[in-house]
């Protein structure tokens, strides 16, 4: 099922920044065409698209709201028109319990953009409904091109939150538990030449954290260590190109422990790599890159919101 990405094509949602941008950049540098689907591009992503606008490999940007299913269909249509066939799909767009879609700031509270009569949470739409729908579309596309025998890859972004509880971000945690279940449930698609895998990153130094002071309060720079988007992207590339992945990021020696890659594989990426098993897994633990030590301030803020009169009843808190 290993696939050299050179000359292939990928669709990546959320690749305008962060982990998904790092993955898009790494794929392009290894000869893979990439369609970046996002609401907008940060400067570094804009530069990438401009640099690879012609020739081979090529990068294109398709403005996409991942909550809109017709726009998800459109990104496949554009990729097929521009590149002919898609081999790798990463439904990577995600958010980390923003104030505008947040368990502790329910619909009807001042920061929330989730309407009281809307029947949905934007956070759930982005973090789990969009990966589910994109997976369906990807599988349909892959099956349409099944006759050529080329392996196909669907790679998801989970998190250590897929195992850890976090009072500060309960909906985010629930969505990442759901991603793990989705990936494992699709593991037998190996039979059709479609490998479904995921990475479960630790605390990653991306704008998702660095540009949000309410989240940075949880990180203790003296005790916690950041994982870089590039380290995660390297593991994502390995999940596609290799049948085994080293526990040490960047280790090409083969001397360290090697994890076999099959459908349903979930690899935790801290400052090392380990497989997340479905049963009796020890959990992320406090390995370097897995800890945000100071949840206390955010948890106290949550209790403060809960104790305000009218919490959850539509009051403008």
Automatic annotation (TrEMBL):
<dbReference type="InterPro" id="IPR002347">
    <property type="entry name" value="SDR_fam"/>
</dbReference>
<dbReference type="InterPro" id="IPR036291">
    <property type="entry name" value="NAD(P)-bd_dom_sf"/>
</dbReference>
<keyword id="KW-0521">NADP</keyword>
<dbReference type="InterPro" id="IPR020904">
    <property type="entry name" value="Sc_DH/Rdtase_CS"/>
</dbReference>
<dbReference type="Pfam" id="PF00106">
    <property type="entry name" value="adh_short"/>
</dbReference>
<dbReference type="GO" id="GO:0016616">
    <property type="term" value="F:oxidoreductase activity, acting on the CH-OH group of donors, NAD or NADP as acceptor"/>
</dbReference>
<dbReference type="GO" id="GO:0005737">
    <property type="term" value="C:cytoplasm"/>
</dbReference>
<keyword id="KW-0560">Oxidoreductase</keyword>
<comment type="similarity">
    <text>Belongs to the short-chain dehydrogenases/reductases (SDR) family.</text>
</comment>
<protein>
    <submittedName>
        <fullName>Uncharacterized protein</fullName>
    </submittedName>
</protein>
């Amino acid at each position: 099922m290993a696939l050299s990405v050179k000359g292939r094509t990928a669709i990546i949602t959320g690749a305008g920044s962060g982990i998904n941008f790092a993955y898009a950049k790494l794929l392009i540098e290894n000869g893979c065409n990439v369609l970046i689907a996002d609401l907008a591009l940060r400067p570094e992503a804009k530069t990438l698209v401009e640099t690879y606008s012609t020739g081979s490999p090529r990068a294109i940007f398709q403005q996409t709201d991942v909550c809109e299913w017709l726009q998800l269909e459109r990104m496949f249509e554009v990729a097929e028109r521009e590149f002919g066939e898609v081999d790798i799909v990463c439904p990577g767009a995600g958010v980390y319990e923003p104030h505008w879609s947040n368990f502790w700031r329910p619909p009807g509270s001042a920061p929330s953009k989730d309407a009281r009569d809307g029947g949905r949470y934007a956070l759930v739409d982005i973090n789990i409904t969009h990966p589910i729908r994109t997976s369906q579309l990807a599988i349909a596309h892959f099956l349409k091109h099944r006759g050529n025998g080329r392996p196909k890859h669907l790679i998801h972004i989970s998190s250590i939150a897929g195992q850890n509880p976090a009072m500060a971000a309960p909906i985010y945690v629930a969505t990442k538990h759901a991603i793990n279940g989705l990936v494992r449930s699709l593991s037998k698609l190996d039979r059709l030449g479609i490998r479904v895998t995921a990475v479960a990153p630790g605390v990653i130094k991306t704008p998702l954290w660095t540009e949000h002071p309410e989240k940075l309060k949880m990180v203790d720079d003296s005790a916690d260590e950041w994982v870089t988007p590039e380290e995660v992207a390297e593991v994502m590339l390995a999940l596609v190109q290799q049948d085994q992945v080293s526990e040490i990021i960047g280790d090409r020696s083969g001397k360290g422990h090697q994890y076999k890659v099959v459908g349903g594989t979930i690899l935790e990426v801290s400052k090392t790599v380990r497989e997340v098993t479905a049963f009796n897994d020890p959990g992320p633990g406090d390995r370097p890159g897995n800890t945000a030590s100071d949840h206390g301030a955010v948890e106290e803020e949550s209790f403060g919101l809960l104790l305000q009169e009218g919490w959850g009843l539509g009051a403008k808190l």
